[in-house]
UniProtKB/TrEMBL annotation:
This is NADPH--hemoprotein reductase. The chain crosses the membrane at residues 130-151, 172-197, 299-323. The keyword Nucleus does not apply. Pfam families: Flavodoxin_1, NAD_binding_1, PepSY_TM. The keyword Protein transport does not apply. The lineage of its organism: Bacteria, Pseudomonadati, Bacteroidota, Flavobacteriia, Flavobacteriales. InterPro entries: FAD-bd_FR_type, Flavodoxin/NO_synth, Flavoprotein-like_sf, FNR_nucleotide-bd, OxRdtase_FAD/NAD-bd, PepSY-ass_TM, Riboflavin_synthase-like_b-brl. Keywords: Flavoprotein, Membrane, Transmembrane, Transmembrane helix. Coiled coil: none annotated.
Length: 733
């Protein structure tokens, strides 16, 4: 909720100021070039701290007929306004060491004058200046809210420069540029606000009032300038400006502006007549000007240039992200039954709506079996007169917080007493990139388990990064448990992305093994591109749904490992195929699960039919060190893959291969093999190994848990790091 407030304020401020902000950012970027180009002039004087001002003043006075002013710029240029013997008035750069003239001060380029006017007032005079002042203020607020959001997103100040979780281009670079340039932008905008406020006299007024006793200086004993006590100790590096006495009137003094004060010096005696410190507001004004323009500090000017330019990117990426979230589909909530007639209650916690898509597919598949289903958000949790099953799908946000449509759930859950006991299941949608992976779903699961009216019929299932295959795996398990064959429906978006149908010839089909698994070898009729890890889809006659299988590319053909399911229309249809028969199928690229040929080591972890894509990858391996772990019920379960494994070992395509059997011998799972090999595993991961996991969702959960624990105990790396470094590839169902 609080995060939403920051997010909405950030967005509203950005939208409302966008056009002016765009103009201010473009002109600001151009103006930042000026101090950099000025810095390229070779007038900068070194060693100003060794030149006393008495030396410079007396030198100038004897060289020229009259000296009006001497200014030391922030770039250490020494600029003198003088009158020559020919009564020519000039403003020149000088070298105070030998008083030579280095060049004439040129008028400022018309282009930069034009840009400054545009930047300050958009050529709209006072109205424009007011606009620009307001836009600076808004920019300051946008940058501050942005920084707060960024800190929250990164998990605190200390993690500001930590790993970035965002993958999407706009999000990722919004964060990357944000952490470098938000602070300079806050400085640019805050100083801009100050300068505008000063222009409209909204800041306290200041002017230095020097006082001295009149007539006190009419009589004096003149001293040599070089002996002036007030001037002797001041060096040029401390001076901003010296205004020379206008006439020989003893009450016309040298006015010397230093960094924090101004002094008046008697022009004949050298006595300090008055000394006044600048008020705080004046110091703030001088500092604001320097910080806002970058004058005299080319490095800061370059930072200003990049920061102003980055505002343009923030505007683009911010609007692109907003647009994407605006065009996202409204959650579908059309289900058959109202809350008190439905037997199946599906409750959803979602921030951006994607979890609703999953819930909707699931609800439609239940409805296809004439079940009465009610779908709503978790926030609408209530009593349900007829409910037998409650299925909760929820995402996690922030630091393990509830997503927008679930923020009220836990409070309501404590207040609402259910009418009947119900079976319940929780599915967490999250991302392993976050330390609190699916933790809001865990919180809900805990609450449900502690409540006597709710019977958890399955352990919590976690779906990483909206993996449809993982979700399908969960749906199949849920279906098996409740005797409802769940066929997840196609949505419009799926239909658009459906692939071209290709004809395949059956080259071979194996016997079914003791686990009801068989191998099917196919050859595409026409030239069709595919790789191990891609998916092939079949829609059996009279079925509405396509079923996907992971491909192994063996000798240029497709090898599939298929487990026959009791209700599996597709697996039973494929099981009846005969050698030479032709079937239709579609190939779906699955680039995220292709073999990482540049990795030094690949660790393949699979169970059951999940070994299939690995068999193809292993056969085509050139020089990657591959370690294969496989889990199944018994040694006999592996028989259908034996010839491939032997071939791989003899041809040295793999370096090691270990089996875990759950129903014989040690009765262990594949994750137990990882525990046994923990040292090897950590070492390989730290040296860039890629881990590929293929098989059942339960196996995936077990394996991920083990890897997570091993890393936590023995390495600085986290699962999130592996995902980010593309060292983790998962294809489970
Ligand atoms: C800003 C942000 C914070 C997130 N925080 C977490 C988190 O703490 N734990 C987690 O498991 N997933 C986290 N996620 C991932 C989402 O839960 C995941 O992408 C989910 O599928 C989104 O579902 P939705 O689109 O229905 O909101 C986060 C995502 C974003 C964009």
């Amino acid at each position: 909720m609080i995060r939403s407030i920051w997010r909405y304020s950030h967005l509203i401020l950005a939208v409302s100021s966008s056009i002016f902000l765009l103009l201010a950012a473009v002109t600001g970027t151009i103006l930042a070039v000026e101090p950099v180009s000025n810095a390229t002039k070779d007038y900068s004087i070194e060693g100003l701290n060794e030149i006393s001002i008495t030396q410079t003043i007396s030198g100038l006075k004897s060289k020229y007929m009259e000296v009006l002013e001497l200014e030391i710029t922030p770039s250490n240029y020494v600029v003198a306004s003088i009158l020559t013997e020919d009564f020519e008035s000039k403003t020149i750069y000088i070298d105070p060491n030998d008083l030579s003239e280095l060049g004439t001060v040129e008028d400022r380029a018309t282009f930069f004058n034009f840009m400054t006017n545009f930047h300050r007032s958009l050529f709209l005079k006072s109205t424009g200046r007011i606009f620009v002042g307001i836009v600076s203020f808004l920019l300051c607020l946008i940058a501050i809210t942005g920084l707060i959001l960024l800190i929250k997103r990164q998990g605190g100040w200390l993690k500001l420069f930590g790993k970035i979780k965002e993958r999407n281009f706009e999000q990722r670079y919004h964060v990357i540029l944000g952490r470098w340039f938000l602070m300079p932008i806050i400085i640019i905008s805050a100083t801009g606000v100050f300068l505008s406020a000063e222009k409209f006299e909204l800041t306290p007024s200041y002017s230095i009032q020097h006082t001295w006793k009149e007539n006190n200086y009419d009589e004096f004993e003149a001293a040599e300038l070089s002996d002036f006590p007030g001037l002797k100790k001041i060096h040029l590096n401390e001076v901003r400006k010296i205004v020379f006495p206008f006439s020989e009137d003893p009450e016309d003094f040298y006015q010397i502006q230093l960094a924090n004060r101004e002094i008046l010096i008697h022009q004949f005696t050298g006595e300090i007549v008055s000394e006044q410190k600048y008020p705080f507001v004046q110091l703030a004004s001088m500092l604001s000007m320097q910080l806002h323009t970058g004058e005299g500090n080319p490095i800061w000017a370059i930072i200003l240039f990049i920061s102003s330019g980055s505002i343009l990117f923030f505007m683009y990426s911010g609007f692109a992200m907003t647009l994407k979230s605006l065009v996202k589909k409204k959650p579908k909530l059309t289900t058959t039954a109202d809350k008190d007639e439905a037997e199946y209650i599906i409750l959803v916690g979602s921030e951006t709506g994607k979890t609703f898509d999953f819930a909707y597919r699931f609800s439609k598949s239940l409805e296809s079996h004439d079940k009465l289903v009610h779908l709503s958000s978790l926030n609408e949790y209530s009593t349900y007169n007829n409910a037998k099953h409650i299925i909760i799908f929820t995402a996690t946000y922030g630091d393990g917080d509830a997503p927008a449509s679930a923020t009220k759930f836990l409070k309501k859950f404590k207040q609402v007493e259910p009418k009947n006991p119900v079976d319940c299941t929780v599915v967490g949608f999250g991302s392993m990139l976050y330390p609190n992976y699916c933790s809001y779903a865990e919180d809900i699961q805990k609450e449900l388990k502690a409540h006597s009216s709710f019977k958890s019929i399955m352990e919590l299932t976690k779906i990483n990064e909206q993996s449809f295959e993982q979700f399908r795996g969960w749906a199949n398990n849920w279906g098996a448990k409740n005797n409802i064959p769940v066929h997840l429906v196609l949505l419009d978006s799926d239909i658009i992305s459906r692939k071209r149908t290709v004809k395949f010839k059956v080259l071979d089909i194996s016997e079914v093994n003791i686990d009801n698994t068989f191998l099917l070898k196919l050859k595409p009729h026409k030239h069709t591109k595919f790789k191990s890890g891609d998916l092939i889809g079949f829609t059996p006659p009279n079925a509405r749904r396509e079923r996907l299988y992971s491909i192994a590319k063996i000798d240029g053909s497709i090898l599939l490992s298929i487990k026959k399911h009791e209700f599996g229309k597709c697996s039973n249809y494929l099981g009846l195929l005969k050698k030479g028969q032709i079937i239709d199928g579609t190939i779906e690229k699955n680039t995220k699960f292709h073999f990482p040929s540049k990795a030094p080591t690949v660790i393949m972890i699979s169970n059951g039919t999940g070994i299939a894509p690995f068999l193809g990858m292993i056969q085509n391996n050139k020089n990657t060190s591959i370690h294969l772990f496989w889990g199944g019920r018994s040694a006999q379960s592996f028989n259908i893959y034996n010839s491939y494994a032997k071939d791989a070992l003899t041809k040295k395509k793999i370096e090691s291969f270990e089996n875990a059997f759950s129903r014989e011998g040690e009765q262990i799972y594949v994750q137990d093999l990882l525990l046994k090999n923990r040292e090897f595993l950590v070492n390989a991961i730290e040296n860039g190994a890629v881990i590929m996991i293929c098989g059942s969702i339960n196996m995936q959960n077990g394996v991920i848990k083990v890897i997570d624990n091993i890393l936590e105990e023995t390495s600085n790396l986290t699962l999130g790091d592996l995902d980010l470094n593309k060292q983790l590839k998962i294809d489970c169902y």
